[in-house]
Design a protein that fits this description.
The chain is of the alpha/beta class. The protein is built from 15 helices and twelve strands. It folds into two domains: about 120 residues, Aspartate Aminotransferase, domain 1 (Alpha-Beta Complex); about 230 residues, Aspartate Aminotransferase, domain 2. It is globular, with a radius of gyration of 22 Å.
């Protein structure tokens, strides 16, 4: 039987980049795929199903409640909408025509990232007014306090991501403390930070949103965990603007299976396996003249590292941009992590790679640099 790549004329992709939406998320683990698949030929009351999901999310994350959305982006928009409307169905039905006074949402300027779309657009879709706090490389407590004292603030959106400015920003704990002083809820965009979801809940964030289809290795979906009243208001958005962002049964069952898998996963063993693969990368690429190698931990504190490649263009004959482009040519296409190419280096993220694929990636790099 022909593979899907052959059937539809698609190139095979070797994912040395990581958990990226553009590369279709993650490989769905067999246990999770089995449960999602088993849901397809049955019917369920979605309210009951989301109730079951809330129980699982609460147990695994420590949050009061939870629900499943179409993705993290949907979860951000629906969470902001929840803070605008509360449980008032009349307001839910009116969005994004938000004609009441309290509709300001604060976000640090260094968190106004584009993750494939602008996070500020996710907020504005609700009808809320975005207020960018501080400068691009610095946020002070005084910046936040000034806007909070001005009133009309319904939420603070805090982004936990490598995309954000990594210095000069207020951390989550400081933001939560400030916001709660004014009874303002904090929404965390933690798309790829599901390995830290308990930590973010414990810090006191009111709503934390993570992807089901990144390190949780599930079908596409977003997991919202947080305070019960706010989660209920998030789910209520399905009767309004959230209708276009609803999660299907396979997403909900997949997310539950993924969280249950995480519950029993040996994280230390998983980390050791990732370290082993990074070590294999360094071994296979060692000795290439002009190529410097290193290892960097995940910048957001997740328990894994990546191999860093820094080619000297004068010695290697190609710079990082050319190296990245050339390994991506052909079939299979090797996709390196090029987030820092303009700083002179690339990463190999080995999480989605088998040993065979690690060898293939390194052979392709050697061919280009030779």
């Amino acid at each position: 039987m022909a593979s899907l790549h052959e059937k539809y004329g698609l190139r095979r992709v070797i994912n040395a980049c990581g958990k990226m939406t553009a590369l279709s998320g993650a490989k769905v683990l067999p246990e999770i795929a089995q449960q999602a698949s088993a849901s397809l030929d049955g019917f369920y009351d979605l309210d009951e199903l989301q109730g079951a999901a809330s129980t699982v999310i609460s147990r695994v994350t420590g949050a009061e409640a939870g629900c499943v959305t179409a993705c993290t982006a949907a979860g951000i928009t629906e969470s902001v909408a929840a803070c605008l409307t509360g449980s008032a169905l009349g307001k839910v039905l009116k969005l994004p025509d938000c004609d009441w006074a309290a509709k300001r949402v604060l976000i640090q300027k260094g968190h106004c990232v584009n993750y494939g779309a602008p996070v500020t657009q996710n907020i504005r879709m609700t009808g809320a007014d975005v207020v960018e706090i501080g400068e691009v490389n610095r946020t002070l407590v005084e910046h936040f306090r000034h806007e909070l004292e001005a009133g009309g603030v319904v939420a603070v959106v805090h982004v936990e991501s490598h995309h954000t400015v990594q210095k000069g920003m207020l951390d989550l704990a400081a933001v939560v403390e400030l916001a709660h002083e004014f009874d303002v809820p904090v929404i965390v965009d933690g798309a790829a930070q599901d390995q830290r979801i308990q930590e973010m809940v414990e810090i006191g964030a009111d709503l934390v949103i993570v992807s089901a289809h990144k390190y949780l290795c599930s079908t596409t979906g977003g997991i919202v965990a947080g305070k019960k009243a706010l989660v209920e208001a998030v789910y209520l958005q399905n009767r309004g603007i959230g209708r276009a962002m609803k999660a299907g049964k396979e997403a909900i069952f997949g997310a539950m299976a993924a969280l249950e898998y995480r519950e029993r996963e040996d994280v230390e063993a998983w980390t050791a396996e990732q370290d082993r693969k990074v070590g294999l990368v360094l071994e296979l690429l060692s000795g290439i003249e002009g190529l410097s190698l290193g290892v960097d931990a995940d910048p957001n504190g997740c328990p894994f590292s990546r191999a860093r490649l820094t080619p000297d263009a004068e010695v290697c004959g190609v710079d990082v941009f050319e190296l990245n482009r050339r390994v991506a040519e052909g079939d299979p296409s090797v996709r390196l992590r090029a987030h820092h190419a303009n700083e002179g280096y690339l990463y190999i993220d080995a999480i989605e790679l088998t040993d065979e694929e690690v060898h293939l990636v390194c052979e392709r790099i050697r061919e280009v640099l030779a």
